[in-house]
Amino acid sequence: MSMTPFVHLHNHSDCSFLDGAIKVKSLVNAAKNAGMPAVAITDHGSLFGLIEFYREAEKAGIKPILGYEAYVAPDSRLKRDYQQGARKYDHLILLAANNEGYKNLMALGTYAYSEGFYHRPRIDKELLRKHSEGLIALSACIQGEISSYIIRNDYEGAKRALHEFLDIFGKERFFLELQDHGIDEELVANEGLIRLAREEGVSLVVTNDCH
Predict the structure, then answer these.
(1) Radius of gyration over alpha carbons of the chain, in Å?
(2) What pLDDT score was predicted for residue 138?
(3) What is each CA distance from 117 to 14, 83, 88, 137, in whole angstroms?
(4) Who's near 90: CB < 8 A, 6+ residues apart?
(5) Which pLDDT value is given to residue 19?
(6) Quick one: how far is CA 153 from the chain centroid?
(7) Is the pTM higher than 0.85?
(8) Rounded to an integer, what distance in angstroms lies between the CA atom of residue 168 and that of residue 131?
(9) H-type helices in the chain, by residue range?
């Protein structure tokens, strides 16, 4: 029985500053040696490694999936006055499905630094609505908005957030993301994500948060 090869869709290179340690060439070579037909790069708030990654993947004969892990403000990217301890951003994986998606990645990455920078380069859902074409979104790690609601025992909040993302991307371009690195909070999040997927008819993907 033939099986679809696993493809890593959540990877942080050394362009995830102070966070990732994977060299782009090493990432591509590891994917090729494992027989993977494609691999993604999703640096934190950063698009700086995309060109090198694209060239190395093309050279190695595997499909480069260009993306990044966006920091999404819970309200407006322009807001700066937060109470101490308040959430200033949530994580969201964005992957370019085509050339239009790549252009929208560039736009979002630019706005994140030029308009939304506060502790991190942030975007917001207003920008996502304007620049969602050609992009595939994954709900990200336990720092993603939906998982965060589940971990805080707010299932209805998670459902509202899911519906908002579905309104932006549609069911064909938004996926709930499961991870298991032996972290207790991930197990809680995964249970809620699987429940959401079943109830709302949303597809799941499994990733490793590679750093």
Answers:
(1) 17
(2) 98
(3) 20, 17, 11, 21
(4) 71, 72, 74, 140, 143, 144, 145, 148
(5) 81
(6) 22
(7) yes
(8) 10
(9) 24-33, 50-60, 99-114, 125-130, 145-151, 155-169, 184-200
Position 114 scores a pLDDT of 96
Residue 2's pLDDT is what?
Answer: 45
Q: Looking at residue 4, what is its pLDDT?
A: 61
Mean pLDDT, the chain cut into blocks of 10 residues (211 residues total) = 73 85 93 94 94 96 96 95 91 98 97 95 97 98 97 97 98 97 95 97 94 89
Which helix H or strand E contains 64, and what residues bound it?
strand 63-72
Contact of 120 with 82, CB cutoff 8 Å: no
Q: Is 182 exposed, middle or buried (0-12, 13-18, 19+ CB in 10 A)?
A: exposed
Collapse the DSSP code of 95 into the 3-class scheme (helix H, G, I; strand E, B; otherwise coil) and give the result. strand
Q: How many residues does the chain have?
A: 211
| 40 in Cβ contact with 95 (< 8 Å) | yes
Lookup: tokens for 130: 């304007």
Q: Are 104 and 65 in contact (CB under 8 A)?
A: no
